[in-house]
């Protein structure tokens, strides 16, 4: 280790950067591990100390290492601020293969799900159980019917865009014209296209802390730096956000204001107005993720989309996957016409074709005469499951939780500090699959529960499993 290969026409400091990055990516240097001193590295590499300092400064700027007074230089334990090397390109993206980096805890969860063991209760998976997904009867459709409907423009199937526009008008009483809607193959494709078209490698984005954005590999693959901004009861903290904007030259703010994933929080009206005003002042666009919009337990007027408050500055992402199942793969993006057109052009250049089949079926569901009634029935059942899970969690004094106002995630915080690796292992041993907080932040003190997957038949099983896990952690927990 620490053998430097000096290449012709490559600056030595760049070779040092590449070497240290390779050690981090290969696992030879682990998160939190300390690097040798600058003087020691200079001796090992047989170079001037200033060359080593230059290389380390670059790695600090890129977010891969941090300097702590009294502790030296260590490998960054989190993802905040991490970007790829300055000469980032698609070849490097593939070499880094951010999409292949799976957390060992995720691998264990997915292995347990695949095993289909009877004692497994899956509250980790981020979708509705099959028994809750509304069923729609479709008229007989011929192959010729789909061929006739194939005549769609770059923005997607016009009847579907018209139906989505009508739903927004009915739900929130504001106009979202069909020509401002771009249909995508799910919400994540909309996000991916925004990263490729509107942002560049090295750009900084502010997100809520915690946030499901933190768990997505597409940011790191695209060389985008993420900066987390803490939240309080009303949502993202605006003073912290303004500090991040000034300090890190934030190019975009991405939020999930209604029934936030993973915390379930709902941003207050005052905070929504303040966020819009702040971003207007700094001329920074907001990306609003509103995929849980239809699963609201409170009146729609209490949660107006940020898009309604500022139509020109907000990029709005919606989805049908959260209510019609993940295989639906129908999302949409509402943006200014010029932005939508550029994104649609970029999608064509990337050869991301948009199938007519799910679009036609989605439109048939939205225009079904019982659509509104079926969504209301779904929401009522999900709310009942939310109440049942909330009651179970709050009966245990070791956990703290706030009842969500919609969506299907409940965030439970362990009252006694950070959970250890062996504590997380207990959840797997007991067959209770949850999403740990370190998926969404650097914190390790909370769990995300998909309460929509806890039916009346298995709520007792959930209660017993959580009680056993809590007791085991408590008995072995320091200071308790």
TrEMBL record:
**Keyword Transcription in annotation:** yes
GO terms (molecular function) for this protein are: DNA binding; DNA-binding transcription factor activity; pyridoxal phosphate binding; transaminase activity
Coiled-coil regions listed in the entry = none
Residue ranges annotated for the HTH gntR-type domain, each copy included: 10-78
Task: Check the record and name the InterPro entries matching this protein.
Answer: Aminotransferase_I/II_large, HTH_trans_reg/aminotransferase, PyrdxlP-dep_Trfase, PyrdxlP-dep_Trfase_major, PyrdxlP-dep_Trfase_small, Tscrpt_reg_HTH_GntR, WH-like_DNA-bd_sf, WH_DNA-bd_sf
Q: Which family does the record claim for this protein?
A: In the C-terminal section; belongs to the class-I pyridoxal-phosphate-dependent aminotransferase family.
Name the chain's protein.
HTH gntR-type domain-containing protein
According to its UniProt entry, this protein's organism is Candidatus Enterococcus dunnyi
The organism's lineage is:
Bacteria, Bacillati, Bacillota, Bacilli, Lactobacillales
């Amino acid at each position: 280790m620490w053998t430097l290969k000096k290449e012709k026409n490559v600056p030595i400091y760049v070779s040092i950067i590449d070497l240290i990055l390779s050690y981090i990516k290969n696992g030879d240097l682990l998160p939190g591990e300390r690097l040798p001193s600058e003087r020691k590295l200079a001796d090992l590499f047989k170079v001037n100390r200033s060359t080593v300092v230059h290389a380390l400064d670059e790695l600090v700027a890129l977010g891969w290492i941090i300097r702590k007074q009294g502790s030296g230089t260590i490998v960054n334990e989190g993802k905040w601020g991490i970007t790829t090397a300055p000469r980032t390109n698609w070849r490097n993206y593939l070499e880094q293969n951010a999409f292949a980096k799976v957390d060992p805890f995720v691998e264990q969860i997915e292995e347990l799900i695949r095993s289909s063991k009877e004692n497994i209760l899956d509250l980790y998976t981020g979708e509705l159980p099959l028994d809750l997904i509304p069923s729609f009867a479709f008229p007989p459709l011929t192959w010729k019917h789909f061929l006739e409907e194939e005549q769609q423009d770059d923005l997607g199937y016009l009847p579907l865009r018209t139906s989505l526009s009508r739903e927004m008008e009915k739900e929130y009483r504001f106009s979202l014209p069909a020509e401002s809607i771009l249909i995508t193959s799910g919400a994540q494709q909309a996000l991916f296209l925004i990263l490729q078209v509107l942002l560049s490698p090295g750009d900084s984005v502010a997100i809520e802390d915690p946030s499901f954005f933190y768990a997505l590999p597409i940011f790191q693959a695209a060389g985008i730096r993420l900066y987390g901004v803490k939240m309080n009861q009303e949502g993202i903290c605006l003073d912290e956000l303004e500090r991040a904007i000034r300090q890190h030259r934030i190019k975009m703010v991405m939020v999930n204001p209604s029934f936030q994933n993973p915390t379930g929080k709902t941003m207050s009206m005052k905070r929504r107005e303040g966020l819009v005003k702040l971003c207007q002042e700094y001329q920074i666009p907001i990306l609003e993720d509103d995929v849980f919009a239809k699963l609201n337990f409170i009146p729609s007027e209490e949660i107006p989309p940020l898009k309604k408050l500022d139509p020109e500055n907000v990029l709005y992402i919606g989805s049908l996957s959260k209510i019609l199942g993940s295989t639906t793969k129908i999302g949409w993006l509402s943006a200014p016409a010029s932005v939508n057109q550029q994104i649609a052009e970029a999608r064509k250049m990337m050869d991301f074709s948009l199938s007519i089949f799910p679009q036609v079926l989605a439109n048939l569901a939205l225009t079904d005469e019982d659509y509104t009634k079926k969504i209301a029935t779904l929401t009522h059942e999900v709310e009942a499951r939310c109440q049942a899970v909330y009651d179970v969690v709050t009966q245990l004094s070791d956990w703290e939780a706030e009842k969500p106002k919609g969506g299907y995630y409940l965030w439970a915080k362990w009252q006694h500090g950070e959970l250890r690796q062996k504590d997380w292992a207990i959840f797997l041993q007991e067959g209770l699959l949850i999403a740990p907080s370190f998926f969404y932040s650097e914190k390790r003190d909370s769990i995300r529960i998909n309460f929509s997957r806890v039916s009346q038949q298995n709520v007792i099983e959930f209660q017993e499993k959580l009680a056993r896990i809590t007791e085991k952690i408590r008995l072995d927990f320091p200071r308790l």
